[in-house]
Amino acid sequence: MPLQLVRAQVVKASTKFRSRLRKSLAVMAALATAAAPIASQAQGISTLRDAEIEAWLEDYSRPIFTAAGLNPKSIEIIIVNDPTFNAFAGGRYMGVNSGLFTFAKTPNEIEGVIAHEAGHLAGNHGARSAEAMANAGTPMLLGLLLAGAAIAAGAPEAGIGLLGLGQNIAIKDYLVYSRSQEATADQSSITYLNRLGKSTKGAMDIWSRMRNYQIITGQRVNPFLQSHPLANERFSALQTRAMESPYFNVQDSPEEIHRLHLIQAKIKGFLHDPLQTLRDYPLSDQSDPAHYARAVAYYRHSEIEKALKEIRKLTAEHPDNPYFNELEGQILFEYGRTNESIAPHRKTVELLPDNPLMRINLARSLIASNEPDLIAEATIHLKRAVAKEKDNGFAWYELARAYAEQGETAKADLATAESRFQSGAHPDANHFARRALPGLERGTAEWRQAMDIILATQPAEGAPPLPSAQPAPQPLPSPEERQPQEKKTPDVPDPIVIDSN
Ligand SMILES: [Zn+2]
Questions:
Q1: What is the largest CA-CA distance in the chain?
Q2: Distance between CA 210 and CA 218 in Å, rounded?
Q3: How far apart are CA 33 and CA 29, in angstroms?
Q4: Ligand 1 center to 270 CA (angstroms)
Q5: DSSP conformation class of 136
Q6: Rounded to an integer, what distance in angstroms lies between the CA atom of residue 168 and that of residue 25?
Q7: Do the domain assignments include residue 434?
Q8: What is the pLDDT of residues 238-296, one digit of tens each?
Q9: Fewer Cβ within 10 Å of end Cβ, the chain: N or C?
Q10: Would the CA dihedral through 342, 346, 348, 354 be positive or negative?
Q11: What is the 8-class DSSP label of residue 72?
Q12: Which residues, other chains included, contact 156 with Cβ-Cβ below 8 Å and sequence gap of 6+?
């Protein structure tokens, strides 16, 4: 059974990546602190990759960005793993905390926040921040994106991909807007929602609750309010405009509310303490979100049979929901029932053929099968995935494994080179690309890819030579070196401690 070794490898690879990244980010963090004196509380940031949440954000943001005159394709959305309510925008990025989803009561409330952030982007309010980022922060933001991409869905440690990114990476500190910019963003947000015929009530409600929250929590500064100061006069102006809207009373449909409830259930399941989740969703609750939340909580609490029972209730009732199938596949895979995990993962690819994260999940299950035909199939899925997300280091890493299993050494080296490159490990990338080159046919796309990596990672003239790839990347194990699987419980993330102050 390859599972354990494979898992260990993946974990090791990501740990290594993490430490590499942390080194470069430590420098950024120092700069950040120097540039922005507000940067105070030490805070680790990690990003999430999850197909369901990403699809939700895409669906809701795209029309708003368009209404704001922005090109939705040019804006990268980052999901930050943080239980507090926060959102930020600057340059070509918009970030939202997972806490935004759990704080919001309706999809329309989140739309209000997205529209506000779109107002900052459209007003180019981040310009000063963008300049600061150009000096110090761009690599930091890119780092966040890379991390998200590198780990991909069905990430080794968690269902939702998690990757720690060191400390003091306080993006928000780059994005402190002036009062007039805040007021403008509010007004713009109402304009965009009106253009779309969407209610402005959610915007009003969520800001209003945020204000009360601020009062209740007293001294403790909410991170969102830190970057988006919410003065009384600002709120009254927003309220007045919002209430004038002809669409004020437009309601979210029950389907839209249900969809948000599923996402909230998933986030709580993965990011809150499992026992707390089981209390929040008691067995008496037989709704879909409750089954969903309990499936994840049991899975994280190592109660696999209960987890399967909950998720299979959902997949039986909604066989065409890709995310229910994805979770069933993930539970099976992480508990070593890799062959059984193929069917649900295959189903997700049928349902969402364009989604690279689904193909990566399926490929991992196929590789674990040890069957040559299935490993060959995995290669196809992974090639489709990296065609869609060229910077997905985790997909390249899995592709390297698939090639290695098939004895395609040069292609495995090339995929490893790309994976290391995407992780920012340039000496490793250079080393593997050079090693791949002699085995690739001159002039082919792969040969050019190897050359590109070598050139991109070559030290400038006069610079000290690249260090040799140290520590040596782990060689891929041959089948006979594999160890039997011992572990029955998956590595799931420690529960995030929710600060109740
Ligand atoms: Zn703002």
A1: 71
A2: 12
A3: 6
A4: 28
A5: I
A6: 9
A7: no
A8: 999 999 999 999 999 999 999 999 999 999 999 999 999 999 999 999 999 999 999 99
A9: C
A10: positive
A11: G
A12: 7, 10, 11, 14, 491
Joined together, the tokens standing for residue 494 give: 């420690």
On whether residue 324 sits in a domain, the answer given is: no
pLDDT, the chain, mean: 76
Q: How many domains is the chain partitioned into structurally?
A: 1
Please tell me the distance from the alpha carbon of residue 385 to that of residue 387, in angstroms, as a whole number.
Answer: 5
Q: What residues pair up with 89 in beta bridges, in sequence order?
A: 94
Query: Given strand 87-90, what is the order of strands in its sheet?
Result: 87-90, 93-97, 76-80, 46-49, 161-164
* C-alpha 126 to ligand 1 mean position (Å): 10
Ligand 1 centroid vs 49 CA: distance in angstroms?
24
For residue 311, report the distance from its CA to the centre of ligand 1, in Å. Answer: 39
C-alpha 116 – ligand 1 centre gap (Å): 6
DSSP code, position 230: -
Please give the residue range of the domain that contains residue 230. 3-244
Of 233, 232, 195, 223, whose CA–CA distance to 118 is shortest? 195
C-beta of residue 205 within 8 angstroms of C-beta of residue 214: no
474 Cα to the center of ligand 1, angstroms: 46
* Residue 267 falls inside a structural domain: no
Does any domain span residue 290? no
Q: At which residue do the structure tokens 């295959």 appear?
A: 346
What H or E segment, with its residue span, contains residue 76? strand 76-80
Rounded Cα–Cα distance for residues 479 and 483 (Å) = 9
User: Could you give the count of Cα atoms lying within 13 Å of 300 in the half-sphere of its Cβ?
Assistant: 27
Which residues partner with 87 through β-bridges? 96
Structure confidence by residue, pLDDT tens digits, 379-394: 999 999 999 999 889 9
Mean pLDDT within 334-353: 97
**Half-sphere exposure (Cβ direction) of 420: Cα atoms closer than 13 Å:** 27
- φ, ψ of residue 152 in degrees (nearest 5): 60, 175
Residue 68's CB is within 10 A of a number of other CB atoms, namely: 24
